[in-house]
Amino acid sequence: MTLPVYYYHRVGPFRDGAPLKMNVSPEAFREHMSVLARRAHPVPIGDLVACVREGRPFPRGAVAVTFDDGYRDLMQHALPVLRKFKIPAAFFIVTGGIGGVDSWNSIDKLPREPVMSWDDLKTLRDEGMTI
Hints:
alpha/beta, 4-stranded parallel beta sheet, two-stranded parallel sheet, 5 helices, globular
């Protein structure tokens, strides 16, 4: 069984030299979420995992939205859009980077990007997001 998941890393302005698959513009992300809100049924990822564990089919149109790494720009560019469309999301955080930068990124000459702080994670939690 394949989980229907839309996954992202960064939502924000594109960085020269960064892999295209790692970034989506705020405008494109807003359009993605607008389409999901109208044509699908976004659910917390835990709901999909429970279906797999229990051998149940996914609810019709169910999809999950996830973000890897915990880049700080998600607070500015993704969270307001998720709020607007009432879309739950899961944030997979590099815990060693909390409050710092993406030191795990090994692309030469690419500037380090800020990672969410503990306060950002509390905000996500208070917004009902999965961390």
